[in-house]
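Follow-up to my post from last week.
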Amino acid sequence: GAGVSQSPRYKVAKRGQDVALRCDPISGHVSLFWYQQALGQGPEFLTYFQNEAQLDKSGLPSDRFFAERPEGSVSTLKIQRTQQEDSAVYLCASSQRFKGGASNYGYTFGSGTRLTVV
Amino acid sequence: AQTVTQSQPEMSVQEAETVTLSCTYDTSENNYYLFWYKQPPSRQMILVIRQEAYKQQNATENRFSVNFQKAAKSFSLKISDSQLGDTAMYFCAFMNPGDYGGSQGNLIFGKGTKLSVKP
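User reply:
Got it. Predicted complex:
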């Protein structure tokens, strides 16, 4: 596609519910990132994929967070047993270059999914 | 660990005037990249301007320019001839480039500055 597509745009979950957030990157983009943006804060890194390989998951806040990109294109971020502190905007970004090298090309961000846990 | 600080939570400017947004960062690296991103209410992060640390010349993109002071670790954004469409959150971001694991290649963002352009 022409841009990075994320769905759903909004998600309301009851505490304890599992959620799945989808990211559809630009076709052919090698790198895919997930960021978490709490209200009033800047985005914070969660995890990184190079094609289908998850090379960095150092930013995932707990083992309730899980991400996958099985075929090297679409990625899903799953949050199990959601808590109120998980409420945030989840941003996905992709790049045609690998991590670090992407700095010469920039990252293209999606519009995010706003997750509200009640 | 690298940190990015934006000390102005909110700024406002009259249409057609000039405004400067401040950003400071902390790193022990010598080679890195700095970015300004714009986030309108649509939430999509849009790249405004990029600066390579090894370049002494300040980056410019149309009405947007930066004042990069490497020794002071300062990276401010100047918006000239402000337009109503410039109203948005602006985030300063740092990247330590590299092809390997760890934090290299991750964008590290400040908390943002909310800019309002008034007619």
